[in-house]
Amino acid sequence: MFNSFGNILRVTTFGESHGVAIGGVIDGVPAGVEVDLEAIQNELNRRRPGQSNIVTQRKEPDQVEFLSGIFEGITTGASIGFIIRNTNQKSKDYNHNTNVYRPSHADYTYDKKYGIRDHRGGGRTSARETANWVVAGALAKQLINHISINAYTSSVGDIFLVKPYQELDFSKIENNIVRCPDETVAEEMISKIKEIRKEGDTIGGTITCVVKNLPVGIGEPIFNKLHAALGKAMLSINAVKGFEFGSGFCGAKMKGSEHNDIFNPDGTTKTNLSGGIQGGVSNGMDVYFRVAFKPVATIMQNQPTIDSAGTSTEIQGKGRHDPCVVPRAVPIVEALTALVLADFWLLNQTRRK
Amino acid sequence: MFNSFGNILRVTTFGESHGVAIGGVIDGVPAGVEVDLEAIQNELNRRRPGQSNIVTQRKEPDQVEFLSGIFEGITTGASIGFIIRNTNQKSKDYNHNTNVYRPSHADYTYDKKYGIRDHRGGGRTSARETANWVVAGALAKQLINHISINAYTSSVGDIFLVKPYQELDFSKIENNIVRCPDETVAEEMISKIKEIRKEGDTIGGTITCVVKNLPVGIGEPIFNKLHAALGKAMLSINAVKGFEFGSGFCGAKMKGSEHNDIFNPDGTTKTNLSGGIQGGVSNGMDVYFRVAFKPVATIMQNQPTIDSAGTSTEIQGKGRHDPCVVPRAVPIVEALTALVLADFWLLNQTRRK
Amino acid sequence: MFNSFGNILRVTTFGESHGVAIGGVIDGVPAGVEVDLEAIQNELNRRRPGQSNIVTQRKEPDQVEFLSGIFEGITTGASIGFIIRNTNQKSKDYNHNTNVYRPSHADYTYDKKYGIRDHRGGGRTSARETANWVVAGALAKQLINHISINAYTSSVGDIFLVKPYQELDFSKIENNIVRCPDETVAEEMISKIKEIRKEGDTIGGTITCVVKNLPVGIGEPIFNKLHAALGKAMLSINAVKGFEFGSGFCGAKMKGSEHNDIFNPDGTTKTNLSGGIQGGVSNGMDVYFRVAFKPVATIMQNQPTIDSAGTSTEIQGKGRHDPCVVPRAVPIVEALTALVLADFWLLNQTRRK
Amino acid sequence: MFNSFGNILRVTTFGESHGVAIGGVIDGVPAGVEVDLEAIQNELNRRRPGQSNIVTQRKEPDQVEFLSGIFEGITTGASIGFIIRNTNQKSKDYNHNTNVYRPSHADYTYDKKYGIRDHRGGGRTSARETANWVVAGALAKQLINHISINAYTSSVGDIFLVKPYQELDFSKIENNIVRCPDETVAEEMISKIKEIRKEGDTIGGTITCVVKNLPVGIGEPIFNKLHAALGKAMLSINAVKGFEFGSGFCGAKMKGSEHNDIFNPDGTTKTNLSGGIQGGVSNGMDVYFRVAFKPVATIMQNQPTIDSAGTSTEIQGKGRHDPCVVPRAVPIVEALTALVLADFWLLNQTRRK
Question: C12 vs B19: CB contact, 8 Å cut-off?
Answer without folding.
Answer: no
